[in-house]
Amino acid sequence: MHQPAATPRTQAEEFLTREMATLVIYEQARQSFAHVSGWLHPAEGFLLMRLASATNAMPAGAVVEIGSFKGLSTCWLASGLRSVRSRTGADAGKVFAVDHFTGSPEHQAGGKFEDAEIVKHGSTLPLFRENIQKAGLTDLVEVVQAGSLEAVKTWSGAPIRLLFIDGDHSYEATRDDFAAWSKFVPVGGYICFHDVNTWEGVTRFVKELMADPSRRFITVMGAASLLVARRIA
User: Fold this and answer.
1) How far apart are CA 63 and CA 137, in angstroms?
2) Domains of the chain with bracketed CATH
3) Is the full-model pTM beyond 0.90?
4) How far is CA 131 from CA 72, 76, 171, in A?
5) 43-54: b (≥16 Cβ within 10 Å) or e
6) What pLDDT does 103 receive?
């Protein structure tokens, strides 16, 4: 019996199909990390995940985050590396999670965002490891238990294709984290700043950086308080 030829889908239908597939990926990831508390909006996490998985769109290098807290951003980043491995079979490396895990000033007793884990145990590292393990991402995360400026002294010098800065939110700390780590980001690599337009110190530094006529980074995208900059020189 003659079967009618399939009618091609319209461009709009093709676009919506891709959009729905992306939405499924987002929702699956969001639910996977629901057990991890933190201040990262899911849209910010999803952008980090997609950047981490975009190995063909940037130079080779490591993924490094400055400030890991209880592992929410770590999970999003590591899931991006997992998707590379599942999609290509290639080793996508690990997320280097740089943190002393004793919390920022605002997490201490009496701080603006006093954290029960910090106050009770003095560290979020055990909970961080537990959260990473529950998400099935332990083999994709390497903990660097040290402050940012101490950790950079032991960095191998390897290029960093994706750097996420979310440590101490003061102007001075953001400036120093950038100065210490940005030199390892090659042309075409990305630096992501969290809490832009929500924390005064971070915001002031990022605005100064982007207004500097000699800057080597340009803003390319963002989500909520996450700003993504690409190195151009």
Assistant:
1) 14
2) 11-231 (3.40.50.150)
3) yes
4) 8, 12, 30
5) ebbbbbbbbbbe
6) 87
